Amino acid sequence: MATSECDARARRGDPGLTTAVTADAPADGVVLRAEGLTKVYRSGAVDVHALRGVDLSLSARELIVLLGPSGSGKSTLLNILGGLDTASSGRVFFRGTELTARDEAGLTAYRRHHVGFVFQFYNLIPSLTAVENVSLVTEIADSPMRPEDALALVGLGERLHHFPAQLSGGEQQRVAIARAIAKRPQLLLCDEPTGALDSATGVLVLEAIEAVNRELGTATALITHNADIALMADRVIRFGNGHIVEERINEQRQPARELHW
Ligand code: ADP
Q1: Could you give the maximum distance between any two Cα atoms of the chain, in Å?
Q2: Nearest Cα residue to 108 out of 87, 82, 88
Q3: Is the CB of 252 under 6 A from ligand 1?
Q4: Does domain 3-29+60-83+104-258 sit in CATH 3.40.50.300?
Q5: CA atoms of 167 and 170, how far apart (whole Å)
Q6: How remote is the CA of residue 201 from the centroid of ligand 1, in Å?
Q7: Could you give the CA distance from residue 196 to residue 118 in angstroms, rounded to a whole number?
Q8: For residue 9, how far is its CA from the centre of ligand 1 (angstroms)?
């Protein structure tokens, strides 16, 4: 089925669009809950056990950091939570509705309406200005922010009409964050958002993520290799070999502007 057809079905509430669910959901409730998630990739004759039974929940207004060595399963988990990939077993609930029971069209609707993604590389369209890159998303969203407001939230109110090539790497990443959150998603998933940036620029990007989490209350999960970044989280989840090996609550979140590495 073509994506536009899926989206049209999704807007009509078929299959299982979550608008009704989110309308009833408490503002500070659990946004995501994962139970016993496993993921096995079959790679030729070898099975790779990327997730070996992960339980996790994430609430509105919460910011969690996922730490752990390369290959420990962090991206696999984020992709499943974001509906980009499916689990081998276990269940994921978004606002109480089961994501793992949805078909491809249901996952497309979930991603489109409720999830913002930020990756290490920005994937902006070079021939469009910052505001035009964000508008691509707001034009198809149900109740979006103004693109100008999304860019102002990430500190780029003065860069609306710049093209990506006229922006620094950190500024481009902040445009990508504005693009991810302009549809007002309940969930923001960031996979190594500062991985390609120096420390000073990375801090500006983290401040933008922090502002979104604070101002919009967006439940946020952020993958990083950098233990210093974990200080800005409410909760730090450490991964090893497909498991959560440690979960720690920070009594106080450190402001992103005070981080350095
Ligand atoms: P991390 O994000 O912690 O670096 P990943 O979730 O990317 O870890 O990977 C976990 C494990 O799953 C690794 O062994 C990786 O090689 C494997 N893996 C990830 N994606 C695939 C895939 N599409 N096909 C096969 N193996 C994969």
Answers
A1: 54
A2: 82
A3: no
A4: yes
A5: 8
A6: 28
A7: 13
A8: 32
Task: Indicate which residue's Cα is closest to atom 12 of ligand 1.
Answer: 50
pLDDT digits (tens, 9 = 90+) for 28-71: 599 999 999 999 999 888 999 999 999 999 999 999 999 999 99
Show me where the domains of the chain are located: 3-29+60-83+104-258
d(CA 185, CA 130) in angstroms, rounded, equals 19
Tell me if 92 CB under 6 Å of ligand 1.
Answer: no
pTM, entire model: 0.88
On whether the CB atoms of residues 153 and 211 are closer than 8 A, the answer is yes
The closest alpha carbon to 145, from 116, 118, 114, 183, belongs to 183
Atom of ligand 1 nearest to the CA of 191: 2
Q: Is the peptide bond before 15 cis (omega within 30 degrees of 0)?
A: yes
